[in-house]
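Hi, here's the filled form for the chain we discussed.

Project: internal
Contact: R.S.
Residues: 343
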Amino acid sequence: MSKYPCELIEDLIPLYIEDDVSDATKKIVEEHISECENCKSLVHEYSNDELKIEDFKEDLPEAKTFKKWMKKLKVWGVVAGMVALIAFITIGLLGYKIGEDAENGVITLKTIVKTLEKEGLSLEKDKSKSLDEYDLSGVKPSIYTVEDSKDTLLIYVFDSFREKQKILDETDKYNNYFSMEEFKYHAKNSLIVFIPNEIPENEEEFKAIENKLNLISETTFKYLNNGKERVYKGESENWEGTFTMEYYENWFKDEEGTKYDSYNTKYPMIKYKGADLDEVGTIDFEYETINGGGQSTGLTIDKDGYVKAGGSSGNGTILSEDNEITFIIKWNGKEERIVLKAQ
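And the returned structure, exactly as it came back:
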């Protein structure tokens, strides 16, 4: 019996199919699916899906950097997996290009530590580790142990966003987004890295580390990055549509002027309104926004009538409350369109 829970493997499968995992993670997935028929069938199902994410149309500074990040989004399932497995695949992607807030200035170590502790993460200064081991071009982190464990939290505070950007662009450190050995989070001019003492080997250990990482991720997004959520809804004759966007925007000023940076994660979902769920069959789904869109084929409906249409994530222009979103749904030779508006 596999020592890793199906919930973890299911969210790693899209990455595994895209060959976007380390050899160690690949081995974990293959060992699990050799023993689990459900996860094995999921591999087959995902392998047959055709998914596409269209590029954002960028006219903002650093557009090339934004597009570089969009290349990571090969399939919606990858992002959906990262969200569902927020701790393990880490939404440390959040805020890679966060700027210094034009009004509030740079974030401080004291603010980061107090915010994490206020939200329930107990930290204790660790003086046993060598700062040189974690040096980033002369910037050394503050090192903490996390709660009653040997897990480590590194907090790097750079003098400015530009300094942070330059240093991280020039280093290979912390560049493996899907590593289970370290999990990174970005907040303005800071970098937070969680390093578990040991990679968990059973579901109970995974649950323990997941709670910590969820707490760090949610606190970083909501409080350190001033994260927000916007929901768009609409319906047609046979379908209801929901489009949830979690996002943040930061503006900052320096000697070179004002700069804008943002990050958003989008989750489209549809629900069938009829009672004949068994007759729906497979569904082709597409959505369109002013900034681009995406599509997926071969989707199936669950017992409650819902269809999770994946998700996408990246930097780029944030949809406004006035923007409309169009869903195009095809099934059984039928087609319906839904226009969604912000609630």
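Let me know if anything looks off before we file it.
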